[in-house]
Amino acid sequence: MPDLNAEALSEAVARNLAIVLSLPSAGMFRHVKSRFLANGPDGIWVEAVLSEQALIEQLIATGQPVGITFKNAGQRVAFTAAALSLDPQYRINSSTCLPAILIVTPANLKPVQRRNHYRIRAYDGCGLTARVWRIAPSADLGERPSSAYELNVTLHDVSVGGIGVSFSGKDGERPKVSTDDRLRIELRHGEDVLLIEGKMRAPFGPQAPNTISTGIAFNEMEKDIEGRRNLSLLTRITGQMQREEMRRTRLGVA
């Protein structure tokens, strides 16, 4: 997004555009609706939610960045920046005060790409589980790797193109995985078992010290018979989960 950063951000703040504020917490994120309030000499003021005051104060004390996304000219963009201070009574005009967070003005804005596949949230009881290993470039995908190469993974969502996950390290260490690694993914849903090869996407948003929040993009599955079988099974599984998601939504189930 060349030459757009400063001008686009300044305009967005001046227009008090709506934003999504992402607050890292326990390896996950709390996403809250917010808006830009004003440019300041030391950064940008955004509206805060006092129900998250304890978490915000913790992020300020530890120097962890927060994430912000907003729409600019039809394109969703994002950035991360450190939170500097919290003002419970930030004055926006002569008659109105709001809770606000002062954040560092970011150096870069990044475009958020649209997803090509509908993602279904994984929830307790959905029946889908995932295991992930790092494997050598020449390894046979069907051969079970050593347990030493298995990654601690939490499954967040799934589509026919990939999964959203969090990797967590052991003993407080950062997970030993990168975008260069070849990954072996085992998905189970009932009696169906799928072995798929994939690559980790670049991590997004603020990251906890021993956690990587990211996605895994599946390799193309239409090259051979086994891949087409996996694609067919995955299409059926995600279809079932999507119908169940719609049913739960109608019933008001969280």
Task: Explain what the structure shows.
The longest helix is centred in the C-terminal third of the chain and has 27 residues, at 225-251. It is elongated, with a radius of gyration of 21 Å. The protein is built from 3 helices and 14 strands. The protein has helices spanning 5-14, 53-62, 225-251; strands at 18-25, 28-40, 43-47, 65-72, 75-91, 97-103, 110-111, 120-121, 128-135, 150-159, 162-168, 182-189, 192-200, 211-218. The mean pLDDT is 86. It has 254 residues and is α+β, with helices and mostly antiparallel strands. 19% of the residues lie in helices and 44% in strands. It has 2 domains: 5-111, Pnp Oxidase, Chain A (Roll); 120-251, Thrombin, subunit H, CATH 2.40.10.220. A 6-stranded antiparallel beta barrel has the order 1-2-3-6-5-4.
Span of the ends, CA to CA: 37 Å
CATH class of the largest domain: Mainly Beta
Global morphology: elongated
Biggest pleated sheet: 6 strands, antiparallel, barrel
Put the structure in a nutshell.
This protein has helices at residues 5-14, 53-62, 225-251; strands spanning 18-25, 28-40, 43-47, 65-72, 75-91, 97-103, 110-111, 120-121, 128-135, 150-159, 162-168, 182-189, 192-200, 211-218. Helices cover 19% and strands 44% of the residues.
Helix-strand layout with pairing:
Layout: H1 5-14, E1 18-25, E2 28-40, E3 43-47, H2 53-62, E4 65-72, E5 75-91, E6 97-103, E7 110-111, E8 120-121, E9 128-135, E10 150-159, E11 162-168, E12 182-189, E13 192-200, E14 211-218, H3 225-251
